[in-house]
Structures are given as C-alpha cells and as structure tokens.
Amino acid sequence: MPRYWMRENLAQPLSMSCMAEKVRMSERTFLRRFTQSTGETPARFVETLRLDQTRTLLATGLSLKDIAAQTGYSTSAQLSKAFERRFGMSPTLFKELHCQEKTAHTNTPSAG
C-alpha cells in the first residue's frame, strides 16, 4: 500500500481490512508484508503518521477537537491519550513548550 495514500487519508478510518482490501490482499498477508517492509505494523505506522501530523497542527492554533478530526481520532480525548502514551506529555503541554521555544527564538536580540 502506498504510504502516500495513507498520509492523504489520515482523517478517514484506516482499518486493517480497509488497507488490505485496497491492495487486494488478505489481512494476514497484508500485515505480514507491510511489517516486513516497514518494520512496524500498519496500525503503529498509521498512529505515527497521525501523531506527527498532530504535532505539526498544534503550532497552527487549531483546537484539539479540530486536530482530532483532521488526524482521524474520534474525539480529542482519544487523541490526547494516544499523544501522551507516545510522547509522555499532553498535547497542551507540548504546544506550550513548542510555542514558548518559538517565542524565545523570535524574541532573541541579534548581535550586530
């Protein structure tokens, strides 16, 4: 399955059966081949794509609810739980730290 297709469809439900059907394989064959090819399961791969997109969108000012909808999570609570499990902090804390870091770089006077 093209990884590009997965990236372009993050907001959609990407179940194993859906992905296997897309490439005309049984679920078992798809799981085996995908895992051999990428080193991770399709579910883990999709979660990584979704959480990477979440980190990008947190800097845009969108609400967590909107980010959840754009990245394929049913609720902001579901997104928060996955984010915290992966990164060890809530999306809100990540956003605060990320924005604080950007502000510090922006407001640093340049030597001259």
Folded structure, characterized:
The structure is a single chain. The protein is mainly alpha-helical. Helix content is 70%, strand content 0%. The chain has helices at residues 3-8, 16-22, 27-38, 42-58, 64-70, 76-87, 91-107. Helix 2 packs across helix 3 (27-38). It is elongated.
Would you summarize the structure shown here?
With 112 residues, the chain is mainly alpha-helical. The chain contains 7 helices and no strands. The longest helix is centred in the middle third of the chain and has 17 residues, at 42-58.
SSE arrangement, N to C: HHHHHHH
- End-to-end Cα distance: 52 Å
Number of helices: 7
CATH class: Mainly Alpha
The assembly state of the depicted protein chains is: single chain
Q: Indicate the overall shape.
A: elongated
What is the beta-strand fraction? under 5%
**Helical content band:** 55-70%
Low-confidence stretches: none
Our Rg estimate from Cα atoms comes to 17 Å
Average pLDDT, rounded to a whole number, is 88
Number of strands: 0
CATH superfamily: Homeodomain-like
What is the CATH architecture descriptor?
A: Orthogonal Bundle
Largest sheet: none
Q: Output the CATH topology.
A: Arc Repressor Mutant, subunit A
Please state the structural category.
Answer: mainly alpha
Pfam family, one: HTH_18
Protein name: Helix-turn-helix domain-containing protein
GO molecular function: DNA-binding transcription factor activity; sequence-specific DNA binding
Domain HTH araC/xylS-type: 1-97
